[in-house]
Amino acid sequence: xxxxxxxxxxxxxxxxxxxxxxxxxxxxxxxxxxxxxxxxxxxxxxxxxxxxxxxxxxxxxxxxxxxxxxxxxxxxxxxxxxxxxxxxxxxxxxxxxxxxxxxxxxxxxxxxxxxxxxxxxxxxxxxxxxxxxxxxxxxxxxxxxxxxxxxxxxxxxxxxxxxxxxxxxxxxxxxxxxxxxxxxxxxxxxxxxxxxxxxxxxxxxxxxxxxxxxxxxxxxxxxxxxxxxxxxxxxxxxxxxxxxxxxxxxxxxxxxxxxxxxxxxxxxxxxxxxxxxxxxxxxxxxxxxxxxxxxxxxxxxxxxxxxxxxxxxxxxxxx
Length: 319
Ligand code: HEM
Ligand SMILES: *[C@@H]1O[C@H](CO)[C@@H](O)[C@H](O)[C@H]1NC(C)=O
Ligand SMILES: *[C@@H]1O[C@H](CO)[C@@H](O)[C@H](O)[C@H]1NC(C)=O
Ligand SMILES: *[C@@H]1O[C@H](CO)[C@@H](O)[C@H](O)[C@H]1NC(C)=O
Hints:
Peroxidase, domain 1, mainly alpha, binds 2-acetamido-2-deoxy-beta-D-glucopyranose, binds protoporphyrin IX containing FE, 2 domains, disordered N terminus
C-alpha cells in the first residue's frame, strides 16, 4: 500500500482537536461533559449538604474562589497546605485565621475522585462550588467555565499584596481589581458577595468607632459586639439583615450607611460608584445579572490550561 500523502478523516479530526486545544487557552462550559459528567451532581450535593449543616459555609466557599483567583490566577493555589519546605497562601494576612471550608473542599474532591480519578481540577471545583453556594442561598445561577488546571506552587507574598484589604479606599479597590483585568463595574457587583457571610471585629473595629459615614444605631450595635480591646475574633454579619440569603440588601445597607467594612461603605461615599450601588439597591435582577457576568470574568483570571499545571489528587498538596 502506498504511503499516505494526506490525513484520512479521523486523523484530520484528531489533528484539528489537538491544534485547537494547544492554540487556545480558553475555558469551556462543556469541558467535563465526556470525562466526568457526574462531577456537577457530586459537587452540588456535597455543597448543599455542607450548607444544610452550616449556612455560613456557602459564604466561605464563595470567598475561597475569590482568594484563589486573585493570587496567581484561578489555579487552586489557595488550597495548598504549608509544609516544612513550602509556604503556601493560607497564612498570608487576608487568609490567616479567616478562610474556611478547606475540609468541605476535601470532601468534594474525595467524592469526585471516587467517580472520575484525576480528571477534575481543584481550581474548577472552587469555581463550581462558588456557583452552587450562591444558588443554594437564593442567588443567581450562571454557567461555569471550566478546564482550569492546578498549580504546583503558591505565592504567600502575592496573597499579601493582591487581595484588597478592608481598609482600602475606593481608588485602591478599583486599582486592585483593574490589576486583575476586572472593571470597576465588576468590582462593585462582586462586592455584593458581602450580602452573605461574617467578618471578624478586627476587620471593622476602626470603622465602627472612628468613621462618621455610618448610621449611629448601627455603629453602637457593632461596637457592643466589638470592644476596643479584646474580641478581635468576634463575628458580625456583613449584611446584618439577611446574612444567609444572597440578595441585594448589601447595597440597600450601603445607601443607609450600614456597610460593615470601610471598603464596603467606600462604594457609596460620594464617588463614581454611588450610582451603581443605587441601581443594585433598586433592581435586584440587575445585580444578579451583573454579578453572574463579573464572577465569570473573575474565574477567567490567568487559568492554567492545556498541559500546564496538573490535576491534583489531593487539593492540599501537589502530586
Ligand atoms: C472588594 C474588595 C474586598 C474586600 C476588601 C474584602 C474583604 C473581606 C473581609 C475583611 C472579610 C472578613 C474576613 C474575616 O473577618 O475573617 C470578607 C469576608 C467575605 N468576603 Fe470579601 N472582600 C472583598 C471582595 C470580595 C469578593 C469579590 C468576594 C467574592 C466574590 C468576597 C466574598 C466574601 C465572603 C462571602 C465573605 C464572608 C466569608 C465567611 O463568612 O466565611 N469578598 N471580605
Ligand atoms: C497565623 O495565625 C496564627 C494564629 O493566630 C499565628 O500564630 C501565626 O503567626 C500567623 N501566621 C502569620 C504568617 O502571620
Ligand atoms: C481612631 O483613630 C485614632 C486617631 O487616628 C486612633 O488613634 C485610634 O486608634 C482609632 N481607633 C480605632 C478603634 O481604630
Ligand atoms: C439609622 O437607622 C435607623 C433605622 O435602624 C433610623 O431610624 C435612623 O434614622 C438612622 N439614623 C440616621 C442618622 O440616619
